[in-house]
């Protein structure tokens, strides 16, 4: 089980998961995602994913469970929700000093150093990165 070199488990999981599993919640996260996040941290600087544990506003930018409000919206509508956030393969983040578009451009230009293929969500104000399987190349940018 891989544990991030730079970020805490609370950065990656919603409060529901942390309150039930604590440090054992690492088991729910994709190793490829964590290794890729650590590489970005080393190259660009600190990532800001969730900050709920510091009284911040973000609590669903990493692993989402069925109690999270984003997931609940789909459940209440009777709609299927299979985001990579629910399988521990995605997070949304910001990098201090960089716009999301600059980070996406850097990732696309840095494919040779990326340890795994990634998918990036196009034209959002944050960086959505996931390691869900794709046959679209090392860096695939998709419309949400």
Features:
single chain, 144 residues, alpha+beta, Muramoyl-pentapeptide Carboxypeptidase, domain 2, five-stranded mixed beta sheet, 31% helix, globular
Shape category: globular
CATH topology call = Muramoyl-pentapeptide Carboxypeptidase, domain 2
Listing every helix as H and every strand as E from the N terminus to the C terminus, the arrangement reads HHHEHEHEEE
| Through-space gap between termini | 30 Å
Helix content range of the residues, please? 25-40%
Whole-angstrom Rg: 15 Å
Chain oligomer state: single chain
Instruction: Tell me the β content.
Output: 5-15%
Q: Name the strands of the widest sheet in spatial order.
A: 1-2-4-3-5
Tally of helical segments: 5
**Biggest β-sheet: count, sense, barrel?**
5 strands, mixed
The low-confidence parts are none
Please outline what is shown here.
The protein is 31% helix and 14% strand. It has 144 residues and is α+β, with helices and mostly antiparallel strands.
Please give a structural write-up.
- The longest helix is centred in the first third of the chain and has 14 residues.
- This protein has a single domain, classed as 2-Layer Sandwich (Muramoyl-pentapeptide Carboxypeptidase, domain 2).
- The protein starts with 8 loop residues before the first helix and ends with a strand.
- The chain has a 5-stranded mixed β-sheet with strand order 1-2-4-3-5.
- The chain is globular, with a radius of gyration of 15 Å.
- 31% of the residues lie in helices and 14% in strands.
- The chain contains 5 helices and 5 strands, in the order H-H-H-E-H-E-H-E-E-E.
- With 144 residues, it is α+β, with helices and mostly antiparallel strands.
